[in-house]
Amino acid sequence: MHLNLFTECTPSPSFEGLWRHPQEPDPAVYRSLGHWIALAARLEEACFDALFFADVHGVYDVYEGSWQPAVREAVQIPSIDPVLVIPALAAATRHLGFAVTYSTTYHPPYLCARTFSTLDHLTGGRIGWNVVTSYLRSAEANGIGEFLAHDVRYDRADEYLAAVRALWEDSWSDRAVVADVAGGRYADPALVREAGHEGKWFRVRGPHQCEPSPQRTPVLYQAGASGRGMAFAARHAEVVFLTAADRKRCAEQVAELRRLVREAGRDPASLKVLLGIPVIVAPTAEEAAAKVELFTSLHSAEGRLAKWCGWTGVDLGGYADDTPIESIRVEGTRTPLDLIRRTSPDRDWTVGDVRRTLTLPHRPMRGGRFMLAGTPEEVAAHMTAWIEQTGIDGFNLIPCPASAGAVDICDLLVPQLQRQGLFRRRYDPGEPTLRERYFGAGHRDHGGRP
Amino acid sequence: MHLNLFTECTPSPSFEGLWRHPQEPDPAVYRSLGHWIALAARLEEACFDALFFADVHGVYDVYEGSWQPAVREAVQIPSIDPVLVIPALAAATRHLGFAVTYSTTYHPPYLCARTFSTLDHLTGGRIGWNVVTSYLRSAEANGIGEFLAHDVRYDRADEYLAAVRALWEDSWSDRAVVADVAGGRYADPALVREAGHEGKWFRVRGPHQCEPSPQRTPVLYQAGASGRGMAFAARHAEVVFLTAADRKRCAEQVAELRRLVREAGRDPASLKVLLGIPVIVAPTAEEAAAKVELFTSLHSAEGRLAKWCGWTGVDLGGYADDTPIESIRVEGTRTPLDLIRRTSPDRDWTVGDVRRTLTLPHRPMRGGRFMLAGTPEEVAAHMTAWIEQTGIDGFNLIPCPASAGAVDICDLLVPQLQRQGLFRRRYDPGEPTLRERYFGAGHRDHGGRP
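Above: the input entities. Below: the structure tokens describing the complete assembly.
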């Protein structure tokens, strides 16, 4: 199985309020290299495939029409740019991969291509790109780009991928750099060509500013769960990171994704699917239950509301309690109903239901549903069941809380998986790149293309 | 005196053809972290103020109307993004500063502010920003922004600085992050405010996505030598990096800069001026002369032409030899005459003169003019003379060639400067940030503002 660890460069990754957890370090460590280097080294010891960094641009300012709740609760603000953390982690590790969120909406393709070629060179081929189109409208108020409707963002992202892949895959031949001292030629211009991309959204002439890196195209991650997002993933993604209400729906999503990949003319095996899922693991069932209890008690209701409203673009404060949630649509945003359906599909929700659910103490469903919680043996058994019953290829584990939870995963869960032969005990030296770790030795380029 | 070392993340930094120098490492090291980490560690041993990274976006495609000469000669292509190299160097050092080129033309201010706040956090306050407006028109063909006329770029950059400084300096109070566990508040929103920038070019609402970093605003470097560039520097820059034809003109430039700084309402001492100058140093005068000879013989004429034409926007191939150089103006570019005047002001140049000068073997003027070349004692004496006769505060040393030359500077020149009491032998622990290294303990914020 493949394992990523999910994190964010912010004081309280993934869960609002958890920066207060008594086992967590000073929340200021999120902006210190030493913290990230220690985490990366520990994950490499545990043979993780990759450390996955989520990120946003802008601020969660939908709830109460204000960014103040987000600032108060540290809802992904303050945060630092995870792209800039990775080079220091690359220097401190040899095998661990890094997947980083980077938005197609707020950076031109030409600069994106150079950023990832640089990261691929510096990591020796260990970089992945979590392609996102960005959902926070507040980014627009900060002048970094026009906020477009959801599906239009994906149309634009399709063209974006064509432009960056032209730079990565077609601009410099593998043989272009000749370093010919006698002839005085560093590169042979006949083996370098323009990208020549001219589309509806982008014009990128090229040539690419970088020579070919070990993987050329970073491993393409994607997490879009909408129909349009899945169509995008089917065309481009090599690793999809999904969340699911239960195993049955997860199995349906995986099957649908693989069907779409086949329809797009790709081998369904060229896509790995990782389930993003929170984890609490402890030596005994009692300790695990106590950890779940403590985690639950620290999860901030107001922080969750601020994040949920930012995700959906809907200020729950703006609607009467008896408003059916499915009646709410805000142009350019995700339908709240879509999000609700994914996690709790079995009832008709009103605004009041949602608000109460979000603001009541959060009760994570255990036993392998929503959250993996228990002893190492129990969690390993749940993971096995998920893989067997859904067709996923592994997990993007969300530690609860971020730092202490990651230590538990490395100290308790991974050794259990290794004892059961479910996870590698060492990296395969024949698979030096992140893509090869997913798809086997020799698969250096996207889609295995030569 | 203050010392920076100048470099670029490309196979042949500063001088075309020098990647072929027999003492240089494999040119591929420019894309390896190990190479940069070793250089940074050596510079820190030598107590340098900072490692300075130049950079460009786009490609030199003016000469012969083609990017092929630039690719052949490795004229800043291929290159990787130096911003991404710095975090790994920060992890490997404790005192060395890093100044990096970043364009106001091709990144939105909101993202620029986050990039440098992140770097300032990760380096513990050791970051400088070399503010450039970018001169390569080819960037436009790659869709990263509109190519504007020289002075308009600086007008826009003035507004850009106002926007990023509002995010860095005014958005988060020093006391905003409270990490109040009992009250459940990570930050106090009453102590965070919007930047509220609305101008001709930019709209940046804020708040800033990052909490205050050690320096808040990175140390602002600037290298513009035009009248408009100097006016910009007088308003914002803390370190100006200039080149000069001789000491007399250098002294005039320094005096003019300080006058402009005073006119802008700033203390003239709040600006440090570094002379950018190539250096060749060797144990004996004979060895130094041989090194100059070898350096000269390897400098590529075609590469120089490609770079010069890209700088000026003028394809020398397009004009008859007897065309007076001062008659040539291409909209939006620098006047070639301005560039010529700065380095060889004493004649009326024709296109043929320039082409011949550029394509003949380059004869660096020695004896402290254009190039510092000689024994450590000689070079130290020239440096002293420059400082005494011009009012500069130090140097941005350009090693010839990039790697072997940097070793010579650290092994031979710096110890000589230290023996003479001209340069520090250790870092002052009371000056942990780059700004404090330039302006003294306690000067953490731009312009010494509280």
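Note for the figure: The mean pLDDT of chain B is 91.
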